[in-house]
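The authors assume throughout that readers already know how a fold can be written as discrete tokens. For illustration, here is how one protein appears when written out as sequence plus structure tokens:
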Amino acid sequence: MSSRLHGNSRFTAPAWTHRSGLRCGAKGGRAGEIPRSPYRSKPGSVETAVVQRRGDDLNRDDLCLCGFVLTEVLQGIRDEKQYVAVKRQFSDLLYLPDDASTFELGATIYRNLRRQGITIRNSIDCLIAATVVQHGVGLLENDRDYEFIGQHYPLNRWTV
């Protein structure tokens, strides 16, 4: 992976299903390295699921997300107690805003790739990619659509 980590990088992080939020790396580090934190995630939390898959600790103060990620995560939860718990965990995270330009960029990503014969299976992935590009954040992901998007758009991808 040719990704480079900068002091103010942020990362989208998958939870138990897909993506769960963006990680804002405030600590810096070597290229290809996610900074470690003294914070220990709580068992059963969204961060813990990411830590278990990635092998790194996360600092809750460095977590953020966008509305598209929030929607994807919440719509995939079947259990009401888990839904309430995840919603509560996400309620105090930094929220990355979107505007008309985010939607236009998402559509442009989809259309440009389609024109090249690449079909992205879920247009929300194009909107998440647009948010990542606009905010200059990195993307922790486990979805092959981002591999295709990343070949044509500047995604700082970290596959988990």
Observations:
- Confidence is low (pLDDT under 50) at residues 1-55.
- DSSP finds six helices and six strands in the chain.
- The CA atoms of residues 97 and 152 lie 23 Å apart.
- The beta strands are 9-13, 21-25, 63-66, 94-96, 138-141, 156-159.
